[in-house]
């Protein structure tokens, strides 16, 4: 059966991507997250970056203590936004990287495209959090909708755009499924 799946390049790609993503997810959720402070530290890093960017814009901000995997960040005078594991962008970064690793292509291109893509996905996530903090300050009634729909759509669309860039410009044309 595996031989027949290998014959169909698209199914083989889906199988590789599925196995890699499942492996990353299991390692992250069941080994890294419960036994390390990676989530808390990564969320705090995101908050510190947002605080820095808001200070450049002249806003006074606040942040909760780094005590658990859900932390609050916002502009003084607002309720802020909660940043937790699902919002820190790690799973989106996994999704992006797994796709590039699983998809055929030159390893040299993968070695620069994956780190660049991870950086870009992180920047998009920072912009998402900054936008949500601004919405929480200026129009909190729109926060839930924008968090749930607008920015989820934009983040996944951005990752899809990076994938399409990889497929159409950098992947090995002869190996495309």
Number of domains: 1
Distance between the termini: 18 Å
Pick out the low-confidence regions.
Answer: none
Structure summary, number of beta strands? 3
Q: Which class do the helix and strand fractions yield?
A: mainly alpha
User: Radius of gyration over alpha carbons?
Assistant: 19 Å
- Principal-axis shape: elongated
Q: What is the helix content?
A: over 70%
SSE order: HHHEEEHHH
| Strand order across the largest sheet | 1-2-3
Q: Would you tell me the overall average pLDDT?
A: 91
Q: Number of helix segments?
A: 6
Major sheet: size, sense and barrel closure? 3 strands, antiparallel
Query: How much of the sequence is in beta strands?
Result: 5-15%
Question: Could you describe the 3D structure shown?
Answer:
The chain has helices at residues 2-7, 9-35, 38-56, 90-102, 107-138, 143-170, and strands at residues 61-63, 71-75, 81-83. The chain is mostly helical and 177 residues long. The protein has one domain (9-175). A 3-stranded antiparallel sheet has the order 1-2-3, covered by helices on one side. The radius of gyration is 19 Å and the shape is elongated. The mean pLDDT is 91.
In brief, what are we looking at here?
This protein has about 180 residues and is mainly α. Helix content is about 70%, strand content about 5%.
């Amino acid at each position: 059966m595996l031989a027949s799946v290998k014959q169909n390049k698209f199914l083989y790609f889906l199988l590789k991507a599925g196995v890699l993503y499942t492996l990353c997810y299991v390692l992250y959720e069941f080994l890294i997250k419960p036994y390390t402070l990676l989530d808390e530290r990564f969320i705090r890093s995101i908050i510190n970056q947002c605080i820095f960017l808001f200070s450049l814009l002249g806003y006074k901000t606040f942040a909760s203590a780094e005590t658990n995997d859900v932390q609050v960040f916002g502009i003084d005078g607002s309720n802020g936004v909660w940043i937790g594991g699902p919002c820190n962008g790690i799973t989106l970064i996994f999704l992006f990287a797994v796709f590039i690793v699983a998809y055929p292509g030159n390893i040299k291109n993968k070695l620069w495209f994956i780190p660049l893509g991870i950086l870009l996905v992180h920047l998009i996530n920072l912009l998402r959090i900054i936008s949500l903090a601004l919405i929480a300050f200026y129009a909190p009634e729109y926060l839930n909708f924008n968090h749930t729909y607008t920015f989820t759509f934009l983040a996944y669309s951005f990752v899809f755009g990076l994938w399409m860039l990889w497929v159409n410009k950098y992947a090995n044309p002869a190996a495309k499924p």
